[in-house]
Amino acid sequence: MSSPAHISSQQEEKNQWKQTLILSFQSLGIVFGQLSIGPLIVSTTVSANSIKSEEMLFGHLSFIFWTMTLIPLAMYVFIVLKADDNGEGGTFALYSLLCRCAQVGLLPYEQLADDALSEYEIESSHQNGIGNNEKMGFKNKKKRRYLMLFMALMGSSMIVSNGVLVPALSVFSASIGLDQSLTGAIFETSEEKENFNSDVVVPTACAIVVALFLLQHYGTGKVGFLFAPIIILWLLFIGVVGLYNTLRINPRVVVALSPQYLYKFMKNFNIRNWKALGSILLSIAGSEEMFANIGHSSKKAIKATFIFFVYPSLILCYMGQTAYLSKAIRNSDINYVTHLRASMPKHFHHYFVWLSLLASVVGSQATITATFSIVNQCIALGCFPKVPVVHTSDRIRGQVYIPSINFILMIFCLFFIILIKNVHHLGNATGLATITGMIITTCFMSLMIAKQWNKPVAAACFIIFFGIIEAMYFAACALNYLDGAWMLVALAFFILITMLSWHYGTVKMYAANAENKVSIEYLVELSNGLGLTRVPGIGIVCVDIMRGIPPFFVHFITNLPAIHQVLIFVSFKSMPAAHVPPSRQCLIGRLGPKQYRMFRCILRHGYGDSVLDINEFEDRILDGIFELVSQEVDEISEPFSPESRMIVASDLHDNNSIVSFASVESIECGRLRKKVRFSLPPKSPDMSSPVREELQGLIDAREHGTTYICSQPHLSSGVGSSWIRKFLFGIYVFLQKNLNQKSVVLNIPNAAYVEVAMNYSI
Length: 762
Description:
The protein is of the alpha/beta class.
């Protein structure tokens, strides 16, 4: 008979495989959409002038085959996916790993005196075998740090730009195919194909785009299950038709997979052929989204799905289309058969049109979910306004939805469809965004391989080999600047300026608060001089700095000399990591003399952690304070408790908790809320009278309610600031007023929220 441990192990392995199969199914709808519609986009944007002979046609297929084999398969699936940050991927995840490697970042979480509290980063670095600043070559190299941050933001802006361009391109292209099928339009020149636009194409594309973005609020899981069957049918359809065309029309296309045709194509390079690489690049558009969307799926699911299903289906499709086009070349009708629809058997044309339309809608999903993931990371690391983030899954922490970003993407997408109306131009812009993001990922990965994996030779080979390929494609896309690629430059500049401005303003605000902070001793003396009144309840003061008292609170008590019976200064510390374990999230310490009942809490969270429930947050802090009070000796010799004396608060409901608790329900603001009610156990010789008295005072204060006191700064540029600084700070002020949420970590109810206005000159 099998032992219970063996049975349990088998059950666990079975559950893991079941989870992988479910995520593989979902990934087809949320990760591989853009890659799957590559044949549709490539065939729509390719110029007929670049494939005048069978040899040139075979050269195109050879380029597509080897590009797909080397970039998505070899580079991303087998190398880049290994560099995830605890289940999160993308450019910013790589940057956060490098920040943790050598503390090379310029973000507010590691400024000034805060480093002494960064136990989580230090331990993570040692556990991963990561070197220090000097080993990484960044010691006293501030310009390199700025360059790394700029590259991270640039890579993020490319993914966000794709979140606009790809839906516009894929949906508009499919709408053109639908209209062609219904009207029977035939193009005599490639220019007519590129500029084709009937009265129904734009309205149809706009309606589809609106419907696509309206679906996003249902969450990645539901959208993935809805879209996955469409991609499965699409890949099976184009794969089977591609195999059929290859065997029936021209089996010789198999020889085009030889690098020989790749060499022939490059040997006969001219400007026209070089520009054609921009269209070929679209066959791998979506590779970066595989990495960025790890948080929505899993590495194992993404690898298995791509290797065994997506990759072979796409290769068969490209081979079948090449076989059909080789026949068209012999019949001299290449001008109007480059669209994928033309290579389908005639009795399947209408089925293909509707299926391609659905697949094009799904193809946009990968870029949209990747945009949500990247923006969520940027928010947590202080490089994007704190807009509300909705976590749509309790099991997969990386599945997020951002309503405001979803709306902005939709508006920009409609803008490009209505004004541009040119598939070729949209394709050129998408290609430039794709290759720029890949180049940045390649640079960061080479650093990771050299420093974290301790393989400098492999890193050099990696960046040289893949860098040459990507540089070639980048040059091809740059040649198309006037043919639509300028749209990406304009869009990426807008997004990049937004990120840089928010980062600049955040750092400056942090520095201003840190420079103007006062000590706890000063606050105690000021309190005695003002004769502060203590009112019942708990006051939670939300601050940015980790030490000292922020100037806005001094401004508050100077004008209104009254504070709560218990005062807790709470700092939200974003860590350069995907997730912080619950047992390491809360640091609790006492401020000043015991009778003042003032405490500090530092709440540490990763960029992938979900928003805390407000009552859960309060319960965790109070439980941590109970633990702190119970550990202190009855008499403290120092007049002030040093700020460095802090403990890591244990999880709520710990069996060793000093107090007992019960869960109660109440209705607040029309919503049912669960709350923990604390109570002291019967008198015990293990608990001294002063400790019992203070704990009872904390419990009584909790029963009177909690108020959150936050700063509302009114900002202006200081005298003598340069125009660049004024420009960046002006954008930050605008975003801070119009987009910034009260807190991305807590859902603070309005009834318990107090803002303290204060003027700042930065």
